[in-house]
Amino acid sequence: MFSAPDDATAQRMRSARAIACTTLTLTDLAEEPIWGYAGRTISGAVTSAQGTGWLRVVAEHPDKAHGKLWDGPKTAQELLPPVIPRPVLHRVHDWQAVGWAYRAELYQHTDATVISRSPVLEQDPALPEAWWAQLRLALDALAEAPTERIAVREEYIRRVVPECTGCEVGQVEWSTAHGDFHWSNLGGPGLTILDWEGWGQAPVAFDAAQLYLYSLHIPATAARVRQALGHILDTPAARVAELTICAQVLQAADRTPFYRELASPVKAYLEATYERRR
After folding, report:
1. Are the beta carbons of 174 and 119 closer than 8 angstroms?
2. What's the rounded Cα separation, in Å, for the pair 212 and 266?
């Protein structure tokens, strides 16, 4: 979750949300909508004759309104098995206005509460055992889902991991991942997985590694992640995933506050776990 963008962007996105509500015959219930990074998305509850739903509106420059991020939620709805718990995507509506492309996505409303307002965990979420069992089942099912989508490119991994961690990459094994598997994309007390823009192929254990490393501020929860997902985290194949997540955090630490806060424990984890070349 992010802060509201500049006034001009906020006004443009609120107007786009109003257009979507009118077009889809929805009543906006969100007095304080949820903002995506730099105001790229605006989300919140709506109601209609069919009941309560959740409307997400995303904006992009027209020449970029296609491809992986644009179509991620739609393809996730179409291609991923129902054992992976996520809100049902009911409708998609596209339009363009004043140099922008917009997509409105109308989702099933869920009773799940987002676990953290920050991607990086700041307090113990005290999740029930059933949540952890669902987590393992969901990630195992996702890993086996066939797709040609790419969540993390190998050329990026081979460049950024040595630069930012001082470690060699070695062999990369691949499986299907959510690709942005952090605590503000997860709901509870029943597991719900949100924001399917970037799903696709990534190093084995990529989602598990991200969730673990984003929990390092709360050692008890980090240990619980490791316990639940040790069958993939505690394997040689998970090494590349952990190094890639570490590299992403360190690469962005100078420009993103929550990465800056996570940089120190990530560096400590690297020093304790992996042999570096420098």
Report:
1. no
2. 11
